[in-house]
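step=encode ok
step=design start
structure_in=
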């Protein structure tokens, strides 16, 4: 592999990422914060695994434990076959990590940072230079390679983060909220690069609060809320389990109680964003006309109406009773 020292997994039969009863608490006594509280995860070889949840749900803390930046309070986890608590150094040699809040020296150029990362991973000088050029081209930063990173846009910095995480050709890649704050075009570019890496054999754990991102990229997902995994599986299967489509309506606040009384006749009320009402239609899309007639008979004026097939946000809402932040992320 061109001089890159690859570290074999401790146990090739073990999936690349396994967590069993993983716990991480902060504080002590009656001020303990249970950021991660009994997480069980298995990420299979060669898949993109989406880890979903709102801010503060435990996503980033879980990733920090799996990448050895935090020690677990209880439970155990292995990454690339190595125990994150007792074999942390071997884990670090085997993984790539692009964190949302990674510190990058703004006075250095992209090329200089890649060269520094190569030194840290022990690449020979000749290989380090060629590897840096390969990665700059790969993430579309060749033209900006000798500019100071402080002049990069948000999308350029995230692509540089990705390049830095790939210097040593890791078999397992952790991406923590990789597209937060990016414009639609930058998000699409990063999505395609993640797909390409995965096609080449890299196992990816992707944390996100953007539901469409998980739907587009992930083979399987886990949804975390208040430190607990509340749903886990293939996105298509999770959405199918929700069943009925959701009818959303917008009515005047004063008419909301009466509108709820009407909607509940057609299915279970579902959590919605503020200002709208939602119902899972037992009879499916064919019931929409009957709902409209019933609302009209009750003199309720509907300002806006839309029917949505089950989504990952519906999965989250059904499991937790509230909507997931990021559900309204712009469509790509």
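sequence_out=
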């Amino acid at each position: 592999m061109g001089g890159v020292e690859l570290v074999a997994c401790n146990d090739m039969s073990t999936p690349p990422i396994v967590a069993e009863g993983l716990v991480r608490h902060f504080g002590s006594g009656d001020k303990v914060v249970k950021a991660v509280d009994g997480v069980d995860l298995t990420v299979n070889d060669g898949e993109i695994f989406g880890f979903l949840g709102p801010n503060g749900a435990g996503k980033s803390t879980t990733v920090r434990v799996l990448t050895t930046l935090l020690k677990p309070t209880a439970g155990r986890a292995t990454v690339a076959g190595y125990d994150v608590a007792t074999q942390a150094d071997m884990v670090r040699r085997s993984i790539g990590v692009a964190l949302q809040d990674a510190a990058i020296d703004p006075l250095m150029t992209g090329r200089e940072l890649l060269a520094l990362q190569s030194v840290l991973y022990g690449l020979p000088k000749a290989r380090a230079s060629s590897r840096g050029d390969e990665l700059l081209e790969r993430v579309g930063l060749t033209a900006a390679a000798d500019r100071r990173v402080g002049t990069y846009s948000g999308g350029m910095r995230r692509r540089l983060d990705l390049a830095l995480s790939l210097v040593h050709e890791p078999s397992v890649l952790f991406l923590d909220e990789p597209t937060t704050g990016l414009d639609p075009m930058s998000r699409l570019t990063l999505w395609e690069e993640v797909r390409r890496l995965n096609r080449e054999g890299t196992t990816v754990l992707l944390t996100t609060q953007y539901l469409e991102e998980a739907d587009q990229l992930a083979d399987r997902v886990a949804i975390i809320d208040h430190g607990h995994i509340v749903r886990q599986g293939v996105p298509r299967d999770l959405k199918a389990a929700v069943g009925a489509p959701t009818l959303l309506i917008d009515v005047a606040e004063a008419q909301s109680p009466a509108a709820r009384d009407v909607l509940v006749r057609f299915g279970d009320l579902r959590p919605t964003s503020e200002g709208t009402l939602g119902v899972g239609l037992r009879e499916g899309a064919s019931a929409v006309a009957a709902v409209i007639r019933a609302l009209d008979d009750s003199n309720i004026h509907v300002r806006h109406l839309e029917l949505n097939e089950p989504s990952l946000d519906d999965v989250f809402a059904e499991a937790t009773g509230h909507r997931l932040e990021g559900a309204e992320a712009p469509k790509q």
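step=design ok
step=annotate ok -> The CA atoms of residues 36 and 62 lie 7 Å apart.
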